[in-house]
Structure formats: C-alpha cells, structure tokens
Design a protein that fits this description.
elongated, 10 helices, 274 residues
C-alpha cells in the first residue's frame, strides 16, 4: 500500500509538473509532502477492517460480520440461555462473563427477580411444554426443549432469548453442535413467525460458558448456513449481523479473511428450496 500510494502521488506530481512550470518549481521543494501524504494513505488503506457485508443473492437481505461487542450493535439481540431459564443460582449467572450475564447486568441492573417475572410471563404466553427432571434439585425445575424461544423488550430494545444449553445443579452449562443447529433452526422459525422484522444481532453462540468444543469459525459457518436456509420460505429481516467479540479475534486466532470469503461465496451461490 505504501509503494502504491507513492506511485499514485508520483504520477500526479509528474503530470502537474509537465503541464505547469510554476507548479513544477513549487513541487520540487515539497518532496517531503509526497512521503507524508503517501504514508497517511497507506495507513488508511492498511487499517484493520471491522465490518464485512454481503448481499444475499435473490433476497433483499444483507449479512454482515462485525467485530464488536454485540450489546454495542444496534438491532434485535439474540441472547443464549439455558433450558431451565435459570438466571441466578446463588448469584453465579449475573456475575458471569457471558452474554446472559451481561444482559442481566446491563438491562436488569443485576436484578434477576424482575427478569424472572418477564421470563415467566413470556413462557406463559407461548404455552411451551416442559418436564421436571429429577436430577435438577437447585434453581428452576422446569426444563424446556432445546430451541425454546421467547422475546423480551427492555429499555427500548428487543431481545430473543433462545435455550441452547443445559445447566446442572452447580451452574455449569453445556451443549453440543447438534443442540446449536436445532436451536438456530427454531430461532429463525420463531423470528419469521413472531419477530419484529428488525435487524438481528447474533453473537457466536455456545463459545463461552456453554463449553462448546467446536472452533469459533465453525460456529460462524453454522449460523450463516442455517440463516440462509431459513430464507428459503421468505425474508423476515433486512440484515443479520454476526457480532464477534473483539478480544476473541486475536485470542483464538480467528481468520477474518476466511470468514469473509465463506460469506461472499455463500451469499453469491445461495440455493433456496421449499
């Protein structure tokens, strides 16, 4: 980029100098300008890109990769939660460094009693089936199926809470790639039937406290594939934003260029079936 910027500036300088003698004299004394301007241009061109977007072929939908905290991105946010919708467990969940914990702290001021009331009301409206497993002796006893989705509105923002993990008596969550696929399929279906048609923001589900062993790149691929497949029957949002937490990029050596290529290929050659 540095050599390209120098070459472009040199071309301009030579052209201007050829057409104007006064400009030639002026530019001959300003050689350091070429270096300074070229360096600035090269730095601008080489800056790390934090947003990649692509238009989905055959649909008025944009899919975007954004390196950002999901809570700082505008749109309806997908929040992963456990199948018993536990929100406390002796204060462990609100304090956890997770999407659910951050959601509780930011939008409920770490007050889980209010959140529990909102969750119970939302579950009651949906009339979901549940079971009470005998091994669950702490926290909430009702366990809902993987992929159970409810929506909450808090502080003028809409949230989709999707159950994608099981949690044990010690507050340890776990899931599998099969659970992820099932929860994603049910999430897209729920939003298509009952969503707001707003932009959707989704983090890389299952990569934190859920202890999913698959790489973050694989989770990204699952999200993109399932979303594109869900658009076969129609569109239910204008934009899907996959938010990747910035420290994860360097910590887990995520190859953003590979993700961009996969996104471009998937959007360009998307096939929709009934």
């Amino acid at each position: 980029n540095l050599l390209a910027s120098f070459g472009a500036i040199r071309l301009v300088v030579v052209t201007v100098s050829f057409s104007s003698e006064s400009a030639k004299v002026f530019l001959s004394t300003k050689g350091w300008w070429v270096f300074a301007i070229g360096l600035l241009i090269a730095c601008f061109l080489s800056r790390p890109k934090k947003v990649f977007r692509c238009q989905l072929k055959g649909r008025d939908v944009t899919i975007e990769i954004r390196i950002a905290d999901a809570f700082e991105v505008s749109g309806d946010l997908v929040v992963p939660i456990n199948t018993t919708f536990d929100t406390d467990l002796d204060g462990r969940i609100p304090k956890a460094h997770s999407i659910q914990g951050e959601f509780i702290r930011r939008y409920y001021d770490a007050e889980v009693s209010h959140l529990d009331l909102d969750i119970d009301e939302a579950l009651g409206k949906e009339n979901y089936c549940y079971k009470e497993p005998p091994e669950k002796t702490r926290g909430k006893k009702r366990r809902y199926p993987i992929g159970t989705v409810i929506q909450l509105e808090r502080k003028e923002r809409l949230f989709y809470l999707v159950a994608n993990t099981h949690i044990n008596n010690n507050g340890v969550a776990s899931t599998s790639i099969e659970n992820l696929r099932e929860s994603l399929a049910k999430l897209w279906y729920y939003i298509s039937e009952k969503g707001s048609k707003g932009d959707i923001v989704i983090p890389l589900l299952g990569t934190g406290k859920a202890r999913l062993s698959d790489k973050r790149e694989d989770i990204f691929l699952e999200i993109i594939r399932s979303f594109i497949a869900s658009c076969s029957s129609g569109t239910y949002c204008d934009k899907l934003i996959v938010a990747i937490y910035p420290p994860d990029v360097t910590k887990h050596k995520i190859d953003l260029n590979d993700l961009r290529k996969f996104l471009e290929y998937s959007c360009k050659y998307a096939r929709f079936e009934s």
